[in-house]
Amino acid sequence: MWPDRRLIELLGVEHPLVLAPMAGFVTAELAASVCNAGGLGSIGCATMQPQSAIEAIEKLRSLTSKPFNVNFFCHIPAQANFRREQAWLDQLADYYRELGLDLPSPPPRIDLPPFGDAMCTVVERARPDVVSFHFGLPEPSLLARVKAVGCRVMSSATTVEEALWLEAHGADVIIAQGNEAGGHRGMFMVSEVASQPGSLALIPQVVDAVGVPVIAAGGIADGRAIAAVFALGAAGAQIGTAYLLCPEAATPPLHRDALRQSHADATVVTNVFSGRPARALVNRMTREIGPISAETPEFPLPMAALVGLRAKAEQQGSTDFTPLWAGQAAPLAREMPGEAVTRALVEGALSQFRRLSG
């Protein structure tokens, strides 16, 4: 019943639906539930140490025999800039005082290395069916190693230019990430987030520009949206926020409560949490310092100075300093097991196709 079977045949899945990796939120159990319902489950390993990534992949493999995706970041490492990092910490000083916290000295740092030799070795050992990347692709020798062990490669594009670059440099599948998508924008060739298109405009332009299958991402949370992106030429849909309320997700209780109370205009693209544009639910940080601030250090350095603030606020039941990642379709998230969500999405999409065809 799927009108385009290219992704099904390329990835060996029953349904062309992909669980967004959502590092820190997707568990092996959630990924397996999507796989076992016929979709492509994913786990985000970008924030893990290599041994943790090995363990996560092994756990997922123990829970499903179906194909799955493992995701990594390909960002440019941050350049240390003490003056800028201190200025960022100074900007947060009033919040530290308000919560009775001492301002750390020197400014704390968080190291988040991009995909490199160690993680490539993990991929070579684990041999997942699919490896996806955010913020571009790894350098050619690493990508060649990934492909040499039989992994299909996907990466996100936020513009046609990025999609063309990804295809030319070896991506087997392009994920066209519309501006509606939750979490970090996959942008790597452009910097002006305000001009980036939404899914309705981006998907058909990417489909027309490249020869590889295109997966639509952004604002997709039910069968109507899935059918719509297929009408635009996509061969699959990537879905994230719709799964954040699943019992298998690692979404913290305060984040779950915020999602339950969300509404259509509750999200904003902001860089105040990590230094890179990402869509999250509006909170005090995004209102008072953002949503976009020119003062943030490079990704991922701003996160370090927020650790203490976030922990103390959350102890008090507040999400003032918590990045509540979510897409614009957050109100459509469902509180049901991941397998049930996937099956509902499949049936919703297929019913739309039947209605439109007959």
Short overview:
By secondary structure, this protein is of the alpha/beta class. The chain folds into two domains: 6-75 and 112-251 and 329-357, Alpha-Beta Barrel (TIM Barrel), CATH 3.20.20.70; 79-111 and 267-325, no CATH class.
Structural features, described:
The strands form two sheets. Strands 1-9-8-6-5-4-3-2 form an eight-stranded parallel beta sheet. The chain has a three-stranded antiparallel beta sheet with strand order 7-11-10, with no helix packed on it. It is 39% helix and 13% strand. The two termini are 13 Å apart. It is globular. The longest helix has 20 residues, at 338-357. It is α/β, with parallel strands linked by helices. The protein has helices spanning 6-11, 28-36, 50-63, 82-91, 93-98, 117-126, 140-148, 160-168, 199-209, 223-231, 253-260, 284-288, 302-315, 338-357; strands at residues 17-19, 41-44, 68-73, 130-134, 152-157, 173-177, 183-184, 214-217, 236-239, 267-270, 278-281. It has two domains: 6-75 and 112-251 and 329-357, TIM Barrel, CATH 3.20.20; 79-111 and 267-325, no CATH class. It has 14 helices and eleven strands. The mean pLDDT is 96.
Low-confidence stretches: none
Biggest sheet character? 8 strands, parallel
What's the number of domains? 2
| Beta-strand content estimate | 5-15%
Q: In CATH terms, what is the fold-level topology of the largest domain? A: TIM Barrel
Under CATH, the homologous superfamily of the largest domain reads: Aldolase class I
Helix % is: 25-40%
SS class: alpha/beta
What is the alpha-carbon Rg in Å? 20 Å
| CATH class division of the largest domain | Alpha Beta
The count of β-strands is 11
SSE ordering: HEHEHEHHHEHEHEEHEHEHEEHHH
Q: Determine the N-to-C terminus distance.
A: 13 Å
- What is the CATH architecture descriptor of the largest domain? Alpha-Beta Barrel
The number of helical runs is 14
Strand order across the largest sheet: 1-9-8-6-5-4-3-2
Shape: globular
Mean pLDDT figure: 96
